[in-house]
């Protein structure tokens, strides 16, 4: 689309995220909440909605909601009621989902995102509420029948709804990345959009700049990655602007994303809007969140990405870029924290992670959990380097590969057995330098006479004579002293 045309319009986006909670059991029964189990194996009469069965609240889902609310600065609701959201579908045996309607566990709050110009923008949250998932209908395995898997029926979800404050597909991408990072740091959801454990519906409208009222919104569903949410929104913005340019009215509707074509297609129009006939769930007592409960959860909260960013940049002196790079994946952040609990070489630890370690993980396509070199090893390597016992290059080229093979050994043991320990004993080094001076009397005369470009030649000779084990800094210092004496 022509930029000038797009720039005439203001884009308005609100996102609804469904995050599947990684509790052990389901929201209202003790059925297992294990992803990937044999279809229809995590089901009891409760998940199957048999008459006479009663739901019982899994308190963990409330606690997870409170955790997220604290992290987003939301207000936590004290008096929580549950409601029935009624509709008919084959994967919903009860005929209703239990959800929070009037009393979402969290209201308000925000998620800060970083914009491309370096500024921070807070995306306001309308509400976060708890609900149970439906079962799963599968239409693409059997050519003649739709299959139903009820393992997902009753799995706890948090629905996170934003205000209509997201202004572009890039902001939507950032927002989703931040929420995913947050739920992973809080360990309440694995954030895996590909497996459907985090899902997102995007509400999109456009209006001429300065318009007083929002345009009619279109809801897009079925995006299975953050990148696809961005693609779907891009397509939808262009489609809506093109219609506006042609004076065609935009109708409120629900569209699906067609990933191979990068386009959205109509699923149902406004006339298909459900009336869910919400009413209070008579089988569950209201749940009261006490102040003490909130305080207990607060005390157990882990360090969150933005708190880590502040520590890494202010206390450890890392650049924002490096800090964000390490924080991006929680397990890498944890690994870094373990190294710096053992060394104060914060920058060195960051460089090791972003350099040698990440290239190794990428090369073998493994995660840090599958990586055999421990934070203790890295801290020890840094100590060996900082005390001039080994050089940076032998640490990454020789010691690191040796540690990968023998992680049961310490870095010092391996450095010794590989003969990597540098000679930084000044008496020994002085002896070597004297030897070289004797061996090359001509060059010695010239450098002492001021021909400093010969320094490289002497450094090379000394390194050679010491078998590569002379500490370069120490050698240079001693050499300079001897030239001037
Ligand atoms: P509905 O009742 O149709 O579900 P809601 O008011 O619950 O609509 O809003 C659903 C989501 O749509 C929220 O994230 C909200 O911010 C967003 N939204 C509301 N109006 C608009 C609009 N005109 N354009 C884009 N997003 C919108
Ligand atoms: Mg809604």
Helices and strands, with pairings:
Layout: H1 3-6, E1 9-20, H2 59-71, E2 75-76, E3 79-80, E4 83-86, E5 96-99, E6 106-107, E7 110-114, E8 120-132, E9 136-138, E10 147-149, E11 156-162, H3 169-186, E12 198-208, E13 218-221, H4 226-245, E14 253-258, E15 263-269, E16 279-280, E17 287-288, H5 291-300, H6 305-315, H7 320-327, H8 330-340, H9 346-364, H10 375-386, H11 392-405, H12 411-417, H13 426-439, H14 441-448, H15 455-465, H16 472-484
Parallel strand pairs: 13-14
Antiparallel strand pairs: 1-11, 1-12, 2-6, 3-17, 4-5, 4-16, 6-8, 7-8, 8-11, 9-10, 12-13, 14-15
Helix pairs in contact: 3-4, 6-7, 8-9, 8-10, 13-15, 13-16, 15-16
The protein binds adenosine-5'-diphosphate and magnesium ion (MG).
Adenosine-5'-diphosphate (ADP) binds next to strand 1, strand 11 and strand 12.
In short:
The chain is α+β, with helices and mostly antiparallel strands and 485 residues long. It has helices at residues 3-6, 59-71, 169-186, 226-245, 291-300, 305-315, 320-327, 330-340, 346-364, 375-386, 392-405, 411-417, 426-439, 441-448, 455-465, 472-484, and strands at 9-20, 75-76, 79-80, 83-86, 96-99, 106-107, 110-114, 120-132, 136-138, 147-149, 156-162, 198-208, 218-221, 253-258, 263-269, 279-280, 287-288.
């Amino acid at each position: 689309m022509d930029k000038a045309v797009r720039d005439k319009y203001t884009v308005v986006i609100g996102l609804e995220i469904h995050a599947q909670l990684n509790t052990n059991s389901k929201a209202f029964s003790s059925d297992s909440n294990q992803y990937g189990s044999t279809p229809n194996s995590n089901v009891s009469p409760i998940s199957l909605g048999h008459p006479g069965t009663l739901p019982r609240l899994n308190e963990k889902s409330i606690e997870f909601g409170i955790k997220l609310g604290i992290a987003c600065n939301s207000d936590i609701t004290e008096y929580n009621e549950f409601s029935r959201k009624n509709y008919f579908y084959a994967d919903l045996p009860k005929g209703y989902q239990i959800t929070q309607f009037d009393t979402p566990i969290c209201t308000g709050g925000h998620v800060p995102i970083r914009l491309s110009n370096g500024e921070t923008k807070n995306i306001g949250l309308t509400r976060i509420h708890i609900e149970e998932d439906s079962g799963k209908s599968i239409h693409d395995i059997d050519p003649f029948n739709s299959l139903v898997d009820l393992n997902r029926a009753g799995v706890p979800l948090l629905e996170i709804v934003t205000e209509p404050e997201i202004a572009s597909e890039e902001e939507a991408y950032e927002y989703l990345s931040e929420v995913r990072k947050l739920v992973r740091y809080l360990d309440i959801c694995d954030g895996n959009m590909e497996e459907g454990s985090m899902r997102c519906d995007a509400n999109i409208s456009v209006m001429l700049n300065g318009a007083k009222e929002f345009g009619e919104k279109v809801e897009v569903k079925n995006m299975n990655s953050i990148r696809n949410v961005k693609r779907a929104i891009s397509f939808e913005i262009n489609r809506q602007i093109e219609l506006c340019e042609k004076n065609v009215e935009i109708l409120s509707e629900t569209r699906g994303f067609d990933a191979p074509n990068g386009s959205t297609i109509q699923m149902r129009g406004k006339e298909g809007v459900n009336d869910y006939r919400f009413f209070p769930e008579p089988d569950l007592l209201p749940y009261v969140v006490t102040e003490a409960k909130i305080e207990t959860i607060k005390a157990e909260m882990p360090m969150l990405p933005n708190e880590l960013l502040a520590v890494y940049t202010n206390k450890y002196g890392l650049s924002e870029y490096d800090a964000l790079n390490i924080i991006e994946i929680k397990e890498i952040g944890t690994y870094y924290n373990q190294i710096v609990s053992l060394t104060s070489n914060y920058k060195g630890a960051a460089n090791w992670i972003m350099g040698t370690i990440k290239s190794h993980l990428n090369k073998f396509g493994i995660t840090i959990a599958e990586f055999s070199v421990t934070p203790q090893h890295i801290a020890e390597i840094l100590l060996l380097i900082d005390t001039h016992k080994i050089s940076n290059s032998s640490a990454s080229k020789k010691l690191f590969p040796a540690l990968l093979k023998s992680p049961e050994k310490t870095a010092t043991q391996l450095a010794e057995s590989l003969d990597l320990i540098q000679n930084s004993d000044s008496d020994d080094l002085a002896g070597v330098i004297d030897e070289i001076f004797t061996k090359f009397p001509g060059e010695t005369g010239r450098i002492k006479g001021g021909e400093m470009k010969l320094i490289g030649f002497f450094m090379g000779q000394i390194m050679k004579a010491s078998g590569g084990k002379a500490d370069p800094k120490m050698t240079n210092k001693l050499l300079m002293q001897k030239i001037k004496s």
